[in-house]
Write a structure and sequence with these properties.
alpha/beta; single chain; about 180 residues
Length: about 180
């Protein structure tokens, strides 16, 4: 086995028993399938509203949206952050989580310490439904809201922005123009 594979194995072997110490309702209560708020950013009402918007996006556009928050970078990943630098580390972490969960769509990852919001999309979604410009606009909106302590509003408004942009970007695909033959002559 290569050195990095051994390190990943050891991390998993060391973390798995620790997960058993966390009460099941603490973990389950934080993750409704769309929003994992381990960082405690959002109220229950905001998570519920966010879940409704995410479900609407899923049923309308066949795209996933996943939001994950953490109080801090998990200790087992701290070496990667120090080694790779923030930009590469957060991008890799987000992509790894998205692959693990099979997310096809938009993924938001946020940490309190250090303060960071990372937004990513899979290639198919970025081509049309939610472009690179949309992704950057969402990140900027979330950062602005979070910096001013408006976490709930930032979450809900951000997800509504995702829905609006997917509406705008895919409108032609969902409502093709149908030529009308002169019925009213």
């Amino acid at each position: 086995m290569c050195r990095s594979a051994v390190r990943r194995f050891l991390r998993l072997a060391l973390l798995t028993p620790l997960l058993l110490l966390i009460p099941g309702d603490a973990v389950a209560g934080e993750d409704d399938g769309s929003v994992l708020d381990a960082g405690g950013f959002f109220s229950a009402a905001a998570r519920s509203e966010a879940t409704d918007v995410i479900r609407s996006i899923g049923s309308t556009y066949d795209r996933d949206v996943r939001v994950e928050t953490y109080a801090q970078v998990p200790p087992e990943l701290a070496d990667e952050l120090a080694r790779d630098g923030a930009d590469k580390f957060y991008d890799d972490w987000l992509n790894r989580r998205a692959r693990q969960l099979g997310v096809r769509g938009v993924f938001v990852l946020a940490t309190r310490t250090p303060g960071r919001v990372q937004v990513g999309t899979d290639k198919a979604t970025a081509r049309k439904a939610f472009t690179a410009d949309d992704r950057e606009a969402l990140r900027d909106a979330l950062v602005t809201a979070f910096r001013s302590g408006r976490y709930d509003q930032g979450l809900v408004d951000g997800l509504k922005f995702v829905k609006r942009r997917m509406d705008d970007n895919t409108a032609r695909d969902r409502n093709p123009s149908v030529p009308v033959v002169g019925v009213w002559q």
